[in-house]
Amino acid sequence: MAFERVGVVGLGTMGAGIAEVFARAGLRVIGVEADAEALARGRGHLERSTGRAVDRGRLGEAEREEILRRVTLTTSRDDLSEADLVVEAIPEILDAKVSLFEDLDRICKPQAVLATNTSSLSVTAVAAATGRPGRVVGMHFFNPAPVMRLVEVVGTVVTEPGVLDEIAGLARRLGKTPVAVGDRAGFVVNRLLLPYLNHAAMLLENGVAARDDIEAAMTLGAGLPMGPFALLDLIGLDTAYEVMCVLFDETRDRRHAPAPLLRELVTAGLLGRKSGRGFHGEPPVRRESER
Ligand code: 3HC
């Protein structure tokens, strides 16, 4: 199938980034949000991200306008009826995703592929909510989506193999590298990355080292582009916490139990960049012994 018209449902940080990736590759994008306010926030993400690329001389103003013109924003899911592919990027609530996929199955043409950008929930569960489980896949992008070069292509026991090949081909067309992964909590990247980030929160809370020392240790000592707390703030502490809960549920491995400090920050509404404060921001999160 030639993917020319794609839908993105949910225009938060990830959804807006994914919409931008498609539009930059020349595809027509229909971006769907629940209401006018959320739609305006989604438009803001797109404008800021492409505006920054212009400021850095990576994109011409005319090219930026062309990219933005390729994206149609709407609050009506019915506008997805002609899409060849729809990528879902709504919050990680399984019931909400299942109900969305039931809707998409009714609205979208039978040959359309339905994809979820879920970080850790079951792709099989959303596929089973549709009458086309063979054409439902996971298409997992990484934050920031316009920059990160990987897409995890998640197949289930019922995915048609041809569909996985088509989605992998599309990922290459977007300038990304696809990797094929099975439908297990966290797939590959989050399965390995999130326990490490969670462990960093435990070291902080147990007073093993201070936040900035842990950041310096992992950037300078392990050569990572960001320390664990800067990365947690980028990913969103709520998302990180949800992934850890799913990993723990599936594996029952106590090494995957979410760090109490992570849960505490999420409960307090300190979610990282999206809320203005997380592990970084004022006042800083300190070791227990310093409180
Ligand atoms: N949106 C769009 N573009 C962005 C961006 C954003 N949010 N943040 C940075 N960029 C672009 C910049 O414009 C710049 O592009 P240019 O070279 O064309 O000008 C480029 O990325 C590099 O940015 P900077 O020079 O500002 O900063 P860095 O060199 O420090 O790179 C980074 C920033 C790419 C975020 C880098 O620090 C990094 O790779 N961090 C690790 C990110 C990571 O691990 N992500 C995966 C998280 S796990 C996940 O998402 C899964 C989910 O399910 C939880």
UniProtKB/TrEMBL annotation:
Q: State whether keyword Cell membrane applies.
A: no
Superkingdom per UniProt:
Bacteria
The 3-hydroxyacyl-CoA dehydrogenase NAD binding domain sits at 6-183
Determine if Transmembrane is one of this entry's keywords: no
User: What are the protein's GO molecular function terms?
Assistant: (3S)-3-hydroxyacyl-CoA dehydrogenase (NAD+) activity
Q: What EC number is given for this enzyme?
A: 1.1.1.35
Similarity section: Belongs to the 3-hydroxyacyl-CoA dehydrogenase family.
Protein's name in the database: 3-hydroxyacyl-CoA dehydrogenase family protein
